[in-house]
Amino acid sequence: MLDDRKLAVLRAIVEDFVSTNEPVGSKALADRHNLGVSPATIRNDMAVLEEQGYIAQPHTSAGRVPTDKGYRLFVDRLSTIKPLSAPERRAIETFLSGAYDLDDVVGRTVKLLAQLTRQVAVVQYPSLTRSTVRHVELVRVAESRLLLVLITDTGRVEQRVIETPAEISEESIGHLRALLNTCLDGLGLGEVPTAVADLPDKVGPDERPVAAAVLSVLLETLVERHEEKIVFAGAANLAAVDFSQSLREVLVALEEQVVLMRLLGESGDSSTVTVRIGTENPELGLRSTSVVAADYGVGDLTLARLGVLGPTRMDYPSTMGAVRAVARYVGQILAGS
Amino acid sequence: MLDDRKLAVLRAIVEDFVSTNEPVGSKALADRHNLGVSPATIRNDMAVLEEQGYIAQPHTSAGRVPTDKGYRLFVDRLSTIKPLSAPERRAIETFLSGAYDLDDVVGRTVKLLAQLTRQVAVVQYPSLTRSTVRHVELVRVAESRLLLVLITDTGRVEQRVIETPAEISEESIGHLRALLNTCLDGLGLGEVPTAVADLPDKVGPDERPVAAAVLSVLLETLVERHEEKIVFAGAANLAAVDFSQSLREVLVALEEQVVLMRLLGESGDSSTVTVRIGTENPELGLRSTSVVAADYGVGDLTLARLGVLGPTRMDYPSTMGAVRAVARYVGQILAGS
DNA sequence: ACTTGGCACTCAGGAGTAAGGAGTGCCAGC
DNA sequence: GCTGGCACTCCTTACTCCTGAGTGCCAAGT
What we know:
Two copies of one chain form a homodimer.
Chain A: H1 4-20, H2 26-32, H3 39-51, E1 55-56, E2 65-66, H4 68-78, H5 86-97, H6 102-117, E3 120-124, E4 133-142, E5 145-152, E6 157-163, H7 170-184, H8 192-196, H9 199-202, H10 208-224, E7 230-233, H11 235-240, H12 247-254, H13 257-264, E8 273-277, E9 289-298, E10 301-311, H14 316-336
Antiparallel strand pairs in A: 1-2, 3-7, 3-10, 4-5, 5-6, 8-9, 9-10
Helix pairs in contact in A: 1-3, 1-4, 2-3, 5-6, 5-14, 6-14
The structure holds a DNA duplex.
């Protein structure tokens, strides 16, 4: 249906439009790319491409602009992910390895990705549900107040205050702490609820109310934090490209955790980097943006996702390269800490 | 120099300009406010006000617009902070009291303030240096790895991993923990360094290297986290008002922690709410924005600052009211937790 | 059957012009 | 010292015209 030359024309249109941000015409194409044919021939090809919905013209006598469908074809078949340069890789590595806790890793990652792509970067915190328990700590902070600290293997630390129904001895706390740790050590957080279900039966009757209180807070922590945390950076980069009046809509969307969540989407099945273009996007108001996202994790374990949001008119090969590279390095950093 | 009527005229100009965003003329003033004089008289007053630098006209034959100096006079002498309505207060209270840890309090506060003022809200995390130690915890997470958890009275929890030079027994850890807590309990964080200086001398020779390692990490934590964390929300509100091309500059400034820091400024000496207008602002690129900020804290103790950033053309009385109210409620919430 | 040059046509965007109107400054009178 | 009147400024909007990039189509060439 579309021969090689027509595909080459489409690729050229995408590339030119991305770099110039202006509708590209047949003459310009013939000049800048050596396709070996005359503008008239290109015009014929363009007519076909337009008929098939890959390109469109803003108004009758203007050049052509890729449609979402056109970008899709470009991403799927006409481009390859562009790896970062060696200096860029080194820069990423040194910048990320300077981080000293999870917050810092995530914070640095999102800034880095924003800077690298000159777009808005979005990073999801490593999922709690897929981590395992490294340690549980109980600390008495007042007569009838405990602090529960939950440390996971991904470096995440959750803490919650527990109001106990009665005063408790240091002894009881020690007992409970030991019990919890033997019970939970190394368990996936998803398994915690079943593992601790019988905890109150294992302690003496005096300690039972306290154990129950601890338990309920522990479970609550797992549930409430299930709504994952997610951050973004680089909003200023939005102002650079011309988003006309929809800029506001984009900013609104960015400030809504739930929307960001949906934006990154589900873990991609086959390829490492997934791309969602324009109207493929679930959100209204983000119809003119694309999202390039990838999973990151330690080894085979996927922990969360990160990605980039920008105008549909973006440099996909480079952006995909940056996202993939950063995802990998974050995984490495997390594995090492 | 400026009689009462001229001040009234200035006030009217500020109010009208804030609500309409258009240069205000003498006729409109006479109509909308009943100043009891004719447009011609107002014109004479306006000429004086302009000569003194309180107002300016964008071009000959346009209405007048307040200058930074004019806003300053308005804020200082012509307006009073507008208290929030009872429903608003209730909404704040219920919304904030739903928070369950410090991160959540700060997160909710910044969103709330942004929504309330329809501008960009900025909240600084409670200062570590002014808090006191509530509890120090040492947890063994591996053979030669400790986790140091520092809990302050403001609910802030800092944790750091310590690589110990040698293996250590649970016993030693317990000893060190006890020592640290008796040493530090209730102390201001600023006093910690001197208080723990002689710690290695108090333990047995075997434990000395471990104690030293713990100590250095503890001090490091205090220092590194001194660079305060600060967050903002409501960037979308910027897009609503017309910032022309400087929007980008504002967004850039917002993403820079240091700039945000300077923006909130020093704790105000006399009044509760401080206002910095336009060029009074230290940052280039924020020349057309104003910052309304206030301290918040528990009781007499100032913990940090929060505020709002918006166009110089903002509703100062309402904004100041919102900032003051939110600051108070955050203090209450922190005191209660 | 495809490619090519030629040509008439379309239409967005900029320049130039004109009318309208809001607002001012000044002056003379009360 | 306030007020109405009046001439003047100049921004804003609307309208027109023109230019040029780009197209679609056709007939001729390979």
